[in-house]
Amino acid sequence: MRKRILVVDNEEYIQEVTKICLETVAGWDVLTASSGLEGIQTAELEQPDAILLDVMMPDMDGIATFNRLRENPATQHIPVMFFTAKAQVSDYQYYEELGIKAAIAKPFEPMVLAKQVAQALGWNFVPC
């Protein structure tokens, strides 16, 4: 069964690059959302296998979005990884304490992204 990943990022370019990489390299289905609220609604409706969530977004940032996902019985089981331009050790430790599966630094290496996601989630990864 193909994995389904939800990418939540307010930058359309990041959504597009991520979608192309994950679909082409891993063969996964990729859903996108442009805000925290849209991401929560999409996660609830579509039940993806994992969520890649931008930390810094207007209106509702990644941490607030993550907290809302965890409070919702329909989405609390979905593993979440952060995309972040802030790549300090203290941030990674804080994210781990929150229950984030991994934090992937921006800019990310497009051809390695699927492998990073799979490793963080303990999925077998076979490139297409």
Automatic annotation (TrEMBL):
Pfam families: Response_reg. The modification 4-aspartylphosphate is found at residue 54. One of its GO terms (biological process) is phosphorelay signal transduction system. Gene3D superfamilies: 3.40.50.2300. Transmembrane segments: none annotated. InterPro entries: Bact_response_regulator (IPR050595), CheY-like_superfamily (IPR011006), Sig_transdc_resp-reg_receiver (IPR001789). The keyword RNA-binding does not apply. Keywords: Phosphoprotein. It comes from the Bacteria. SMART domains: REC. This is Response regulator receiver domain protein.
